Amino acid sequence: MTSPTPGYGQYCPISRALDVLGERWSLLILRDLFVGTTRFNDLARGLPGLSRSLLAKRLRQFERAGLIEKLGTEYLLTEAGRQLEPILFRLGEWGARWTFGAPQDEELDAALLVWWMHGRVDTSMLPGRRQVLQVRFTDDVRRFWIVVEAAVPSVCETDPGYPVDVIIDADVAGLYEVWLGRMPLTHAQRTGRVTFTGPPALTRRMPAVLKLSPVAGYVAESVRPARAS
Questions:
Q1: CATH number at residue 20
Q2: In whole angstroms, what is the distance from residue 169 CA to residue 222 CA?
Q3: Is residue 174 part of a domain?
Q4: Which of 68, 103, 105, 146 could pair with 133 in a Cys bridge, judged by C-beta atoms 3.0 to 4.6 Å apart?
Q5: What are the CA-CA distances from residue 66 to residues 40, 116, 132 (Å)?
Q6: Are both 113 and 190 inside the same structural domain?
Q7: Can you give the pTM of this predicted structure?
Q8: Do 97 and 180 touch, CB atoms closer than 8 A?
């Protein structure tokens, strides 16, 4: 006698969808796939609370469900997987409006924030073959470098040995709130929460170079009435 398939055991499309998507970490893995992360090690780096074994298990589940396919070392979304993108970002919109507030200490991970930020760097706004941005937090002793070489950004947690073009100084919570749309960058700069040091021709470009989170617009919209009151 075979064991029943794990799941909700209800003949309903919502139930069937949750059989595929309802397990822990599943939607966050999809979130990172939607923003362009395709390699296992990069997925693991962007989900530091997720064990590599569980990540591998979830990816296998997605393959069996037809949401992704593995080509070489990359996990690519199928048509079924891509159709989940607006659903997930509508969930983000709902979360921004109804569940999102000031960051909690346990949610603040400087390394993760820099990793997220590097994936949103608009390299077309940077001149030359190589540009180096150093991120220095006022409340975290670690230092980070975003190295853009041949239009490809990467993150270093040790000094890469190249001259630094722009230094970004910020407290961790402040930079999170800017990146996620809770605090306008202009306000953060005016109050000293975020500063850019370097040649003016480069520092003036930083607001365009450092694109915000894909959900920042939802967050900004949700806090706008509070700012206006």
A1: 1.10.10.10
A2: 27
A3: yes
A4: 146
A5: 18, 27, 40
A6: yes
A7: 0.92
A8: no
